[in-house]
Amino acid sequence: MMECQEGKRDEIRQHIVVIGAGVVGISTGLNLVQEGFHVTIVARDFPAPFETISVDQINYTSPWAGAHCRFIPPTNETEKREHEMALLTFRHMERLVKDGKQAEAGIRFMKGVEYVERPPQAYLDLTEAKAAELGYKSFRRLDKTELPANVEWGAEYQTFCLNPMMYCAFLLRNFARLGGKIQKKVLQCPQEVFDMPEFRGIAAVVNCSGFGFDDPAVIPNRGQLVIVANDCDVTITRQNKDGSWVVAIPRGYDGGTVVGGTREPGVLDTVPDPLKSKQMLKNLKETHPQILPEGQDFKVLREVVGRRPMREGGPRVEYEVVDRNPKKALVHAYGLGGRGYECSWGVAAAVKDLLDQFAQDVG
Fold this sequence. Notes:
By secondary structure, the chain is α/β, with parallel strands linked by helices. It is built from nine helices and 16 strands. One of its GO terms (molecular function) is D-amino-acid oxidase activity.
């Protein structure tokens, strides 16, 4: 039995196809290559400089993202799983910095600040001791005198921010350097890969497509962003009692700051609303006036819209057996909404474990 499992494991490692070249897809492909798999990433879109990304690529969400890590107090099993994935990713970023890769990868560690106007109980219960148990670094509850007007709860902790173009290019470059292959192609469904002549005989396909190929549980969550040249010294997230948000995520390395605050599930409009952009900048200035020295104003580089693939019930990270002879694995890893960057290496580790589980189950 052990020999059968080893044989199946070796068969799987011969060639894996990962669908999707967003941050989750490339992280997964790179992790598998580092673990000894032979991998091809197949995708419609691949990383490119921010200046060349087109609005036509609105569904390729990674370039538009504000790429940082927010530690959210978990209150259910889905949130606990995502929290563990975020911790794994955080530790991975720490290792990259320790190895001197921060500039090459576009990583900066800095202070993260959270403000909540109407905090739920999970936030009120978040003491320094509880935060330490959850893996927060340098967590501190803010005093009332440190909070902006109308904010009831605030905290700060250590986090990281990424320049997404630099980081995704870094991942892809390392993937290729280690022998990973790349193919540009538009797919209609993940099972299509099994019938492509160049992939015939492969044992597994990993679906990191973001939207999941017509998964009815996945809906686009429209996010409008303003990219400004002004650099912010912290990453800020403010939750207002009316349901709106104030978000500032520094990209660093001359990438400016992502200013956000809209979450519009199911809205497909691709055109930025100038009134919303103006309001987001105004809200940030009121929340964190330090971003603008006296007499200066925001220098807007671009107004963009992205569609975060949000999945009801949480991300799908599991495998199914495709009824072929021999049986194949279709591993799903998509639907992370706005948490792709912060959970990416946790998802990558889970995919590797699922491939090992498949080898054991059918070996």
